[in-house]
Specification:
Length: 207
Amino acid sequence: MADYEDDFDKKLAEEEAELESERDQQEAREETKVVEKVKEEKPKPVEVKEEKQKESTSLIFVVKVTTNKEEKAFEMVSEKIKKKNLDVYAVARPHGLRGYILLEAPDRENAEEAVFNLPYVKGIIPRVVSLSEIKNMIEPVATEVKVEKNDIVEIIGEPFKKEKAKIVRVNKQKGEAIVLLLGAVVPMQVTVKLDNIKVIRREEESS
């Protein structure tokens, strides 16, 4: 009987040992699963895709406008660009370029929107121009304008274009002159830019 109990105890101990071993193995397996799960759930490094900067595209369009209305067309186009916040970089009215103004924009769509349905604007010519083609127009070489008091001049810029005037005072720092319009019914003094006048007679020449 004692031997039987000993065998039973021994067998029970073996079973307990097996169960303990199985529990250990099970726990080990569970731990492995947890570790693997954690590894799987570990956030992957976020790939930061560098956004390619858009290449700065700039096209220069030539806008056909009514001759002698370049200034008016320029003002209207500029006002529309500001009002509608259009993607237009610049508008220029090169001195001496009659019947045209220049407009710089990233594409034709924005350029056409800027000039669409405006007075004095006839449209955009199909061909775009390069900066090198117009550089001498928009960046003229600075030359000293020799204008003196009492010179008789002709105004070559709007709004008094082709009017004759007499120089009253010259402000070379501001690049301006106060002139007396000779053709006006009532004597009138106006301020004009020096590059908008040309001397046609000097007082010392007439003496």
